[in-house]
UniProtKB/TrEMBL annotation:
Superkingdom per UniProt: Bacteria
Family assignment from sequence similarity: Belongs to the LysR transcriptional regulatory family.
PANTHER family: HTH-TYPE TRANSCRIPTIONAL REGULATOR, LYSR FAMILY TRANSCRIPTIONAL REGULATOR
A molecular-function term among this protein's GO annotations: transcription cis-regulatory region binding
Entry keyword Transcription regulation: yes
Protein's recorded name: LysR family transcriptional regulator
Length: 301
């Protein structure tokens, strides 16, 4: 075997950061040593792994092919090293990105459970909208993701975690709040504040009204669910948000869930990861604990 783990580590850090100097800093190497290790790896493999795009190092086809395999080798090497230090079998670090609803309502309990049961498993946690989680998984920014709705990209694997649904909300002072049911025509006449384009919630809502509401009056778009809740509670807007994000405000009487019988907005929260990635015990541990948490929640209801 002609290549070394050091060369693969430099390759992975350059792929992650897009910079030889940043990779050198991360690995505590000089920039010349990092450049030499990368050049040696490319020479040994007989293929260019990067091409320069301005100031950034971008993966070539061969670099993209190599990356998941290099990550697995580095992970296995880390597990061997940790094993000899008598650490837990489930140990190491994984980067997880999740959409806002899962991040706010489900992930804190999951991470707390994992911290208690698997203290050597470290989760780097990012909150992004569904589109950015998908892009980040494809671009190797994150190893594991939780999204709203479906992902049909063949490069990614998807597994359902749990189910949720969206609701149309209004202020208790909104004229529609007193109606027993609201029609599509009335929804079309309203003013709306919604999640930004690319958010899973927005995609599900637009899919549900496609073909029945042609011209929606969207006044504002925001990433933050809390901003949308406040705008609706204090104004005459409508919004569409996950039930988990608004249930306690509905129970307190600050918001009203409108009854739109023809509107079905059931959805799933799902795990995603790269289809070409190999087995990862950290990812499998998180999935297993997440599914167990949902089962226990249902039993307690």
């Amino acid at each position: 075997m002609r290549y070394s783990l050091k060369q693969l580590a430099v390759f992975e850090e350059v792929a992650s950061s897009g910079s030889v100097s940043k990779a050198a800093d991360e690995l505590a190497l000089t920039q010349s040593a990092a450049s030499m290790a990368l050049a040696q790896l490319e020479k040994l493999l007989g293929r260019p792994l990067f091409e320069r795009q301005g100031k950034r190092m971008a993966l070539t086809y061969w670099g993209t092919w190599l990356r998941p395999k290099a990550k697995q080798l580095l992970f296995d090497a880390q597990q061997i090293e940790l094993g000899f230090y008598e650490q837990h079998l489930i140990s190491g670090e994984i980067t997880l990105a999740a959409s806002q609803t899962a991040a706010e309502h489900l992930l804190p309990e999951l991470i707390s459970n994992i911290d208690s049961n698997f203290p050597e498993l470290r989760i780097n946690f990012k909150v992004k909208n569904t589109e950015k989680v998908i892009d980040g998984i494809k671009n190797f920014d994150y190893e594991f993701g939780v999204i709203e709705g479906r992902c049909d990209d063949s490069r990614l694997q998807q597994e359902v975690w749990c189910h949720d649904h969206l609701v149309i909300i209004a202020s208790k002072h909104h004229p529609y709040a007193k109606y027993e049911k609201v029609s599509f025509a009335q929804l079309e006449q309203a003013k709306w504040v919604l999640r930004e384009q690319g958010a899973g919630t927005r995609k599900i809502f637009e899919s549900a009204i496609h073909g029945v509401i042609d011209d929606l009056d969207v006044c504002r778009e925001y990433e933050q669910v809390s901003v949308l809740r406040t705008l609706v509670a204090n104004g005459l807007y409508l919004s569409c948000l996950p039930y988990l994000d608004v249930v306690k405000f509905i129970k307190r009487g600050e918001l009203v869930a409108l009854n739109v019988p023809e509107l079905n907005m059931e959805r799933t929260l799902s795990f995603i990861w790269r289809a070409d990635s190999v087995e990862n015990p950290l990812r499998d541990c998180i999935k297993r604990e997440a599914l167990r948490m949902i089962r226990e929640t249902k039993r307690d209801m």
